[in-house]
């Protein structure tokens, strides 16, 4: 059966596939569905089908594509009388053995159904549908009865013995389609399948950068680990602008020099980083394979296949690129390794940086994790001697890091109804005076986070979530940031029916932009917020324009904190430095430090020195102190000591269990029962249940339990035993397990 007739999501198959009576051989086949284990199928002619091979199998009334799994996997018990057989084998490169081992590992660690991990490995739909061959022409051998100059030109072109696309042939020989058709009819040309075009190969020595001494030393260290071979993790720790990218490019080059080795570079927000792709092209002569959610289905298929066949040598991608079927992966780089977008929070809940280390260890290859503000986890791994450390102590430009100061909002508050304090306003004035760029950063989309009625005090909340509706003035709507619910901005208060009394409370990015336009009407302003820019391409365009100096003041959310270098940017003002501090997240301090260090670090990378001002109510908070004094080391010391003291990651391990139900009572009841069913275990504690801070999302009532385990405890074993024993959720009740949680909402 041709694969084109199938989709990953199944297809109605009218007649049941026949039972294969004389089956002697069976194989485990894992389907890309929420299944824990493979099913068993008969192999019709008893032929050997290697693990990893993609096959079509019947499942109920459907036919589906799955992958033959490893022998030794424990298939679900089955009734031999109901044994069905594999329908066909697909002409698709098989998953390499390492992918099977990796899928098993990830499923075991995250407690996700193995089939869902396989689904991530198959997320290139078109690969599994037969490709339309593309046709062209080559020499046919027969001599045409009549020769013309045009015909001669065509035959001359084809003398190279290759297959030419018709259009290309017409252009090259300057002839019409009729000339080619005539030759084909005469047998002088024959139709032939065009070979698939090969992806360009990055050249390790295309344009090597002259490295500084420190850079060269760090690069040599990384190259050493590649030469040595085998698993090894290295933290590349260097201040913003120190040339970490240049340095790990040398490691990429070294891996490429090794025959056939492939390289994976994981980046957060890869969709935004066109600058990265350009830099890669300058260094290696062509772009890497790209893998993220805005890549077209066709391109995805090309990259997937190219990776599996070993022809795509370098992939730059988002976290999901980790699940590609690399034929011969030789190096992984995780850039901005501290970034929380490496954590996937739905379906298979996993931390891509951590899983990348696992993948490297399974593949016995080196991995480089890179950051100017390493995660506490990686910092601790260096201390424990589990990761090597390569340091770049200074910026390439020789510029000092920006001078950062805290602005005490209690001492110098903004004027009523505005959000920029006098020192920030002054700094922007000074920056504009020098014809340099200023960036104002606020990590909150929309115009105002809260709308209330001055007459009756009514606050607009989402009908399906525990959340205020955020005013988006450009769109004229109130929007819930958790479920997307929205309504047109009302004229009257629905509670008291008074008109003209609704008032915006607090700032969002649009409101800061409004203030900027009022204060500096002459300046060229530019806003960067995911909801205000329609497409990735548009966003890339704006980033390029900013880098080219086509804006004086940039107002942006965390979109601006990564990816691009803005050479003319010398001042960064943080509108609300406290925003991410006041959460129940044990990583709140670390995250705030990382985010504000990165965003202020955008100033003064080149040319003129930079300054940063952070507006805060807590200028004496340890995070603010660390940012101001630049005492990074001190901050990490204190943060690590605190984590150790509290038994928090990476000194202890956490798993969050979220129970959701349509009725609050059902969620509460199930969560309580679940807690009671927890087995006794030394070194493991179950906390809760408590109502989640986001108590309701999309109408789902949420309860949370937190499992806290010592590092040496078998957390997964405990969770499995517990959840297997406990009563299964019924009715609308749903259960989510999040091992190593990053969200505590
Ligand atoms: P990081 O990744 O540490 O923030 P980058 O690699 O982006 O730093 O380097 C910052 C800037 O300095 C980039 O524009 C980069 O091209 C430039 N740069 C760094 N090292 C070199 C070098 N050895 N030669 C030329 N330019 C360099
Ligand atoms: Zn909502």
CATH superfamily heading of the largest domain: P-loop containing nucleotide triphosphate hydrolases
User: What is the 3D shape?
Assistant: globular
Helix content: 25-40%
Bound molecules: adenosine-5'-diphosphate, zinc ion
Number of domains: 5
Main sheet specs:
7 strands, parallel
Question: What is the topological layout?
Answer:
Elements: E1 11-12, E2 26-30, E3 39-42, E4 54-59, E5 62-68, E6 88-89, H1 97-110, H2 114-121, E7 135-139, H3 149-157, H4 166-173, H5 177-185, E8 189-193, H6 213-228, E9 232-238, H7 244-257, E10 262-266, H8 274-284, E11 289-291, H9 297-308, E12 314-317, E13 329-335, H10 352-363, E14 366-371, H11 376-383, E15 387-392, E16 403-408, H12 422-433, E17 437-441, E18 450-453, E19 470-472, E20 477-479, E21 486-488, E22 502-505, H13 509-519, E23 525-528, H14 536-547, E24 553-556, E25 569-574, H15 588-600, E26 611-616, H16 622-629, H17 632-646, E27 652-661, H18 664-676, E28 684-697, E29 700-710, H19 715-725, E30 734-739
Parallel strand pairs: 9-14, 9-15, 10-12, 10-13, 11-12, 13-14, 16-26, 17-24, 17-25, 23-24, 25-26
Antiparallel strand pairs: 1-5, 2-3, 2-5, 4-5, 4-6, 7-8, 18-22, 19-20, 20-21, 27-29, 27-30, 28-29
Residues 462, 464-465, 467, 480, 482-483, 485 line the site of zinc ion.
